[in-house]
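User: For a benchmark we're assembling, each entry needs the component sequences followed by a predicted structure for the full assembly. Here are entry 17's components. Please fill in the structure.
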Amino acid sequence: MLKCREIVEHADALLAAELSPGRRMAVRVHLLMCRHCRRYVRQLQDLLRAVPQMHGRASDAEVAKVVRAVREHDKDA
Amino acid sequence: MAIDDSIDLAALRRREERAFAALVGLHHRALLATATAIVGSNDAEEVVQNTWIKAYSALPKFEGRAALRTWLTRIAINEGRMLLRGQRREMSLDSGDDGQPLADRFRDNGHWSKPPVTWHDESPDGLLMQRELEACLRRLLAAMPSRQRAMLELRDAGGLEFEEICNELAISASNARVLLHRARTQLYKLVDHYQETGEC
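Assistant: Structure for entry 17:
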């Protein structure tokens, strides 16, 4: 039976569907019996969904600066 | 909801200013973070400015085969490379070796000694974007070895495939997976601690 530490090590591959069938089954069996690891994997999945947005939106001033620079470049080109 | 769902692609291809400004708003800071991981913070701004200029002129040809974030990230990598070449620098990323970030959470027998707490806000909007967490997240990313940071930015924030990242960073697939795992578990630990204590 896999240990919790190993579930954490395999969690990335599990979520990316990159585990071999045998290993996937072993991980699934562990997850059935261990609520801590179930929580770990579920929350890792939530975290990965949040990462693309972690830097937040640019401020209006940042956007205006980019748009201005692009427009000036476009005019010169 | 995907990050680009609010973007009007047709208007973007026509380079309508409103659509372009919305695109900049959504992706500018993430591109800055990617550029910082590749060229360092001093040159990141210039790389991202050039990225927007290139992206703007290429927008009419954007086919939508990749997500906009991924497409923009690829342009930023190219611009980063060009800047480094112009300065006769190479992409030099340190690997660091800070061990397993969650190692102290397990007993000797490999089972949890301190399992993760239940997170209260699990939505993509809420989880990493709370005001109190912002400064801690910035510190964590700044302190991360640059290869780990680059893996996180390119794979998880930028959406690039593993193979493409390995080529860009000249690292093996197994090394890339270790680096990404460490970056993710550091982030996990930060959020878990924040969710438990309200501070970080």
